[in-house]
Write a structure and sequence with these properties.
This protein is of the alpha+beta class. The protein is 32% helix and 25% strand. The protein is built from 7 helices and 18 strands. The protein has helices at 109-146, 150-178, 190-200, 202-208, 227-244, 278-281, 300-310, and strands at residues 2-8, 15-18, 24-27, 33-34, 45-50, 53-58, 65-67, 70-71, 76-78, 83-86, 89-95, 186-188, 211-216, 223-225, 251-259, 264-271, 314-321, 324-332. A hairpin with a 2-residue loop joins strand 7 (65-67) and strand 8 (70-71). The longest helix has 38 residues, at 109-146. The radius of gyration is 23 Å and the shape is globular. The N and C termini lie far apart (61 Å).
């Protein structure tokens, strides 16, 4: 029995078992090997059983399929240790049913165990820091109450509350990253959703004395979206911005606009923090990569981008400098714009130079902190 482990791309860490004797489709519209990577075609490649083995062929995908670095021109046999590349997604072929205990070392068990170890270590570190913060806050409240000092108890409570919020956010992001639910898009008011998230995070912003402003342009039409999913994506973006902004003088501005020329709705989230370090930018949207040190889990941006891409949109870093950072969440409208299921060009190093996304000059975005 073979299984596929995603070692690169938005679905990194997921695994798929080839346990049946029927053809298995790889693609964004496939239930067998369903990939969310927007550079993967809806029906990208097919795995066909051949006795006890499997053969791989491309299904005329937009960007092709490679096996161990060679582009497929016909059906090729695969085995444990082979690497399949579809867009920005790489799949490692393993011997076993996807469980770490049943995978052969020759088939890449070391790599899977390394991924599992990386995930467990990152989550354990984050949870440990949160629990330490909760313990500190609880001890402070307990000591103050034992002495009948309500003022001291009030000082310790925000510490406890802040870390409870972080645990809650971590659990929601872990669920969103590990298990997808079907989207249920309905026309929604994007500006109203942004204000709802602002109000929800008002206590967190108030503790840091950070101002959060929502500016909505006139004439933004309802956008087809899954409100609970977009709520989580915006929550992650705003929470990151609030934590990046300086205490007492911090400002976060959320700008909602609609570009009729491209039939896209844009939500820009900007802060006046100190910017994102160069060492982090290249891996900013990977899971468990954070610019917040011990305060970050590295799942917020990864989950937000995944939600945007599942809607046929995108999340991108527009600009970052010593005076602030701005992210843009772009969603397709309901008119005659781009197909939400359109296959994007790969962004990996093996993509043709003219197919890679080009940067947008910051001056085109107009808004700056005063």
């Amino acid at each position: 029995m073979l299984s596929l482990l995603v070692t690169a791309g938005p679905d990194r860490g997921r695994s798929f078992v080839l346990g049946t004797h029927e053809p298995q489709l790889i693609g964004r519209s496939s239930e067998a090997v369903g990939i969310t990577d927007p550079s993967v075609s809806r029906l990208h490649a097919e795995l066909t059983p051949d006795g006890d083995a499997w053969r791989l062929r491309d299904l005329g995908s937009r960007h092709g399929t490679t096996l161990n670095g060679t582009r497929l021109a016909g059906a090729m046999p695969i085995g444990a240790g082979d690497r399949i590349r579809c867009g920005d997604t790489e799949l490692l072929v393993l011997e076993g049913d996807g469980d770490a205990s049943s995978l052969s070392v020759a088939g890449g068990n070391h790599e899977r165990l390394a991924l599992i170890g990386e995930t467990v270590a990152a989550l354990s570190h984050s949870i440990k820091n949160m629990l330490q913060g909760m313990r500190f806050g609880a001890d402070a409240v307990d000591l103050a109450l034992s002495r009948g000092d309500l003022r001291k108890a009030q000082e310790g409570w925000p510490v406890l509350q802040r870390n409870l919020d972080r645990v809650h956010a971590l659990v929601l992001n872990m669920l969103a990253w590990a298990k997808e639910r079907p989207l249920e898009p309905e026309p929604a008011d994007l500006a109203a959703l942004a204000r709802e998230v602002r109000d929800l995070l008002a206590p967190a912003a108030g503790r840091r004395r950070v101002a959060v402003i929502v500016d909505a342009a006139d004439g933004v039409p309802p956008v087809p979206l899954d409100s609970p999913a977009l709520h989580q994506a915006l929550t992650n973006l705003l929470m990151n911005a609030i934590e990046a902004a300086p205490e007492r003088t911090g400002m976060v501005r959320v700008t909602v606009a609609f570009d009729a020329a491209t039939d896209e709705a844009h939500v820009d989230v900007a802060d006046n923090g100190s910017g994102i370090p160069d060492a982090v930018r290249a891996r900013l949207f990977e899971p468990f990569v954070s610019s917040k040190g011990q305060r970050g889990t590295g799942l917020g941006l990864a989950v937000a981008r995944k939600i945007a891409e599942r809607h046929g949109g995108r999340l991108e870093l527009v600009e970052t400098s010593a005076s602030g950072t701005r992210f843009r969440l772009a969603l397709p409208g309901s008119g005659s714009g781009a197909d939400p299921g359109e296959t994007h060009a790969p962004t990996g190093s093996d993509a043709p130079p003219d197919s890679r996304p080009q940067g947008i000059p910051p001056e085109q975005f107009g808004w700056k902190f005063e």
